[in-house]
Amino acid sequence: MFGGGGMNPRKMKQMMKQMGIDVEELDAERVVIETAEADLVFEGPQVTKMDAQGQETYQIVGSPEAVENAGAGGTAGAVEGGDAAGDAATDAADDGGIPDGDVELVAERAGVPKSTARETLEDNDGDLAAAIAALE
């Protein structure tokens, strides 16, 4: 419907405005998406905000860098409070400092046993992307 292959950008904007779609380029310096495994950090991305009938949609164009998130630091506070879930997280971190969730993710993505995944993660200082790349 919106091929726009040879369409004039001004004409495209006019059509979108008639359909109630407002598009705005945002001057973003950095975008961070936090996931359970790692944070995806986009430096200098192109961000577009589209508002269609009150529903806002954001489009991010760029290459993210996977950064180990601060979730491990958040469980340390829970351990000090004596939280049972925090104790389990500490036990996982005692095995070379690599959380079990990271080991499982690498093992699943690379199709290797958990022991191999843990060893590779330790060799790569816990970097999920580097460990997966090394195993593939």
Word description of this protein:
Helices cover 44% and strands 24% of the residues. It is α+β, with helices and mostly antiparallel strands. The strands form 2 sheets. A 3-stranded antiparallel sheet has the order 1-4-5. A 3-stranded antiparallel sheet has the order 2-3-6, with no helix packed on it. A hairpin with a 2-residue loop joins strand 4 (46-52) and strand 5. Helix 2 packs across helix 3. The longest helix is centred in the middle third of the chain and has 11 residues, at 84-94.
Question: Short description, anyone?
Answer:
With 136 residues, the chain is an alpha+beta fold. It has helices spanning 9-18, 71-80, 84-94, 100-110, 114-123, 128-135; strands at residues 21-26, 30-34, 39-43, 46-52, 55-61, 65-67.
